[in-house]
Amino acid sequence: MRFWFHTATLLLLISSASAQVSSHKSSGFKEKHGAMPAPKPQPTGLKAYMPFDAPVVRVNGAVLTNRDLLREMYTIFPYARTHKGFPKGMEADIRRGAMDMIVFEELVYQEAVRLKMQVSDDLMKKTETDFRKQFTSEGEFQQYVKLECQGSMKVLRERFRRALLIDALMKKEVGGHSKVSKAEAKAYYEKNIKEFTHEDMLHIQTISIIPPKNPGVSYEQEARKQAEEALKQAKETKSFREFGLLAEKVSDDDWHVNMGNRKDVPAAALPKPIVDAARKMKPGDVSELFHFGPNFTFFRLVSFTPAHVDKFSEVEKKVRENLEKSRYDEERSAFNKRLRKRSKVEVL
Which residue of 172, 201, 299, 300 has the smallest Cβ count within 10 Å? Predict the structure, then answer.
């Protein structure tokens, strides 16, 4: 899902794929989380999307091309640039999602034009100023304009205007209806209190010494000896990392490849002796040796979080964000249906 709430962020970014922009052609503006001022070469292995200017869909007479589609596919799956293509098992879904998005953005843009919405000169100037700031030099900016905008500032400014119109209409038709009040968030919290109720949680690192299958007494004695030596070394460790490196070296359990890190685990999922011991320990303490079946285990306590219920004040922000996201999706879907109902979309 994409938000159009932050115009300043939106306008710092522009697609790195080159595009020719007419009054009804996709501008390539996206709300993302990192600048890509320098154009990158297209990945190989994308024959299905060549030539880039081949038409793929007509929206009320405006033609969008493979270039627009591929640009959006990169937005959905940016790793395609480094992996030289899209995963075969995901490609159809990525393409379908990209097609839906470029059609939707074109419909929003056309609706903004129909409503005769305007972009102020001051906002256009600010947008251009902000956009230039992502480049390290004037030369780099001019190179971008040359490669991505046919050397035309008019083309670039048309992209600014188009993106700002889309942003403004999305705020009006979707963002403005997606806000969630404190009272609404509180009502959700009280109705779904189980969602905010947590059981005892343990975060531990473990080291286990496991004898061979069907061990004799001698094997068990040898395993105990190894475990006691490992425990002695563990007691001397001073940090998560030191204990973890020891776990990687001597432990036989499945977590040794991750520094023995078990992360947060419900206390009910662990043996009672471990939980009972953890209640008496401080973070950083190393337990004594436990003998479970043929295995010898000990652990380092990272944290113990007692069962609790989150206070509303602690989760209010997250609750509101989640509800607003859900409401935004609903409003966006409804807006898309309204636009499509009176439009003609032809996949070419």
Answer: 172
The pLDDT score that the predictor gives to residue 215 is 59
Q: In sequence order, which residues have a C-beta less than 8 Å from that of residue 327 and are 6 or more positions away?
A: 177, 178, 180
Take residue 298 and report the two structure tokens written for it: 């000990």
> Please, where in the chain does CATH 1.10.4030.10 lie?
7-173
pLDDT at position 43: 41
Q: What separation in angstroms does the CA of 213 have from each of 217, 223, 225, 294, 328?
A: 12, 12, 17, 9, 56
Per residue in 227-272, pLDDT tens? Answer: 999 999 999 999 999 999 999 999 998 999 999 998 889 999 999 9
SS3 23: coil
What gap in Å lies between CA 93 and CA 78, rounded to an integer?
15
Helix ranges, the chain (H): 7-10, 66-76, 80-83, 88-114, 121-132, 138-148, 153-173, 182-191, 217-235, 240-250, 272-279, 312-341
pLDDT of residue 150: 85
Intervals of CATH 3.10.50.40 along the chain: 200-306
Tell me the HSE value of 164 on the side-chain side, using a 13 A CA sphere. Answer: 22
Fold of 200-306: Chitinase A; domain 3 (3.10.50)
CA-closest candidate to residue 19, choices 143, 142, 145: 145
pLDDT value for 71: 85
pTM: 0.61
pLDDT at 216: 59
The CATH class that applies to domain 7-173 reads mainly alpha
The ranges of the chain with pLDDT < 70 are: 1-52, 214-217
Give me the phi and psi of 234, to 5 degrees please.
-65, -35
| Residue where the block lists tokens 């293509």 | 85
- What is the rounded distance in angstroms from the CA atom of residue 321 to the CA atom of residue 62? 36
